[in-house]
Amino acid sequence: MSRAFILLLDSFGLGATPDADKYGDSATNTFGHIAAWAAKIGQPMQLPTMEKLGLAAAAHTACGEWAAGFDQRDSFTGAYGAAREQSTGKDTQSGHWEIAGVPVLFDWGYFPKTVPSFPAELTDQLQTLTGVPGFLGNCHASGTEIINRLGDEHVASGKPILYTSADSVLQIAAHEEHFGLERLYEMCEKAYELVKPYNIGRVIARPFVGADSNYKRTSNRHDYAVPPPAPTLLDHVKDAGGEVIALGKISDIYAAQGVSRVVKGPDNMALFDALLKVQDEAGDKSLTFVNFVDFDQAFGHRRDVAGYSNALHEMDARLPEFIAKLKAGDLCVITADHGCDPTSPGSDHTREHIPMIFFGPGVKERSLGISETFSDIGQTIAHHLGVKPLANGTNLL
Ligand SMILES: O=P(O)(O)O[C@H]1O[C@H](CO)[C@@H](O)[C@H]1O
Ligand SMILES: [Mn+2]
Ligand SMILES: [Mn+2]
């Protein structure tokens, strides 16, 4: 029996790639800078499980330095390395699709950093189709900041909040109760059709609750993503008769292509509980793919170093439960889709190496060096499961 598990820590980068200067990210290092911050405040990070699997060694491979508090060890249990992205974007879709064998070699459309950011033609059509009295925002913003700034005006006027970021995305924030969740979803479906000519990767519904300049997003976020342009690892596994179990926002990111079963959860630890349950159920040739979004959404974009560090400790503390239940024929990988250095300016993703830490009963300690494409991860899994090889990437094991 062979099974595969991808544990994707959304935004857990291991240091700038050689092309990071083109993105203004040449000094970024998500893991390295969190570890340095922790050491500086006198509480060095302790991630014994991931360290033993090869995390710090993978980070050393990526950036040439040992993260503060992580000493060089002479034995690991995983096959560890780092990967650089072939796709030109540093967004979630590009990262995930490339891992699954489909790098994004075309240019996504982006909305400019002007105010208004969205073309009048687009917002006019959206207003006509939905009958709202207008829009607020219409700019680049951090999603948590803009709802607190414009939430009161939104509630009073009924105008939804439109914003974007360095990603190829149109986000619509609206109050779950005052505006209505279904109404927000319907608006996003219309917006998804309208952004097609602009080559935008995703429209995201961002419902929130609260009052009086104190608003909080809910877990009813919904992504309307364009599908990958070619079959991914998920399709190859499903076509070969294996179950593809998508936890968290994985199904949204691949527009449900190649997904057999969707399991959602409100936060990292709920998703970890779901992962442990799925681990008992997954059968031969299955792929279980989980995206732990809090690293990115709750801490990376929020530039919350302490929160990010804490989330890594929480994850590390739970991993032994998962490892203890692995069976012969299981191949697992801890990886990421891009960086989001919480110590860097702004609130956007950062162009970094991602970890590739393979482990499981049949994996022997080994340094894998640096891959030139994230697709080496997917190809290694395709080979392990014995499904059709991917069009891109090299088997590493
Ligand atoms: O600031 P928030 O709304 O969390 O936005 C972030 O979330 C979006 C999707 O992951 C990205 O485009 C990023 O900008
Ligand atoms: Mn991401
Ligand atoms: Mn993000």
TrEMBL record:
Binds 2 manganese ions. One of its GO terms (cellular component) is cytosol. Its EC number is 5.4.2.7. The keyword Ribosomal protein does not apply. Pathway: Carbohydrate degradation; 2-deoxy-D-ribose 1-phosphate degradation; D-glyceraldehyde 3-phosphate and acetaldehyde from 2-deoxy-alpha-D-ribose 1-phosphate: step 1/2. Keywords: Cytoplasm, Isomerase, Manganese, Metal-binding. Its cofactor is Mn(2+). Mn(2+) 2 binds at D296, H301, H349. Transmembrane segments: none annotated. It is found in: Cytoplasm. Residues 3-388 form the Metalloenzyme domain. GO terms for molecular function: magnesium ion binding; manganese ion binding; phosphopentomutase activity. It comes from the Bacteria. It catalyses: 2-deoxy-alpha-D-ribose 1-phosphate = 2-deoxy-D-ribose 5-phosphate; alpha-D-ribose 1-phosphate = D-ribose 5-phosphate. Mn(2+) 1 binds at D10, D337, H338. GO terms for biological process: 2-deoxyribose 1-phosphate catabolic process; 5-phosphoribose 1-diphosphate biosynthetic process; metabolic compound salvage; nucleotide metabolic process. SUPFAM superfamilies: Alkaline phosphatase-like, DeoB insert domain-like. InterPro entries: Alkaline_phosphatase_core_sf (IPR017850), DeoB (IPR010045), Metalloenzyme (IPR006124), Phosphopentomutase_DeoB_cap_sf (IPR024052). CDD domains: PPM (cd16009). It holds the Pfam family Metalloenzyme. Its main location: cytoplasm. Isomerase that catalyzes the conversion of deoxy-ribose 1-phosphate (dRib-1-P) and ribose 1-phosphate (Rib-1-P) to deoxy-ribose 5-phosphate (dRib-5-P) and ribose 5-phosphate (Rib-5-P), respectively. Belongs to the phosphopentomutase family. This is Phosphopentomutase. It comes from Pseudoduganella violacea. The gene is deoB.
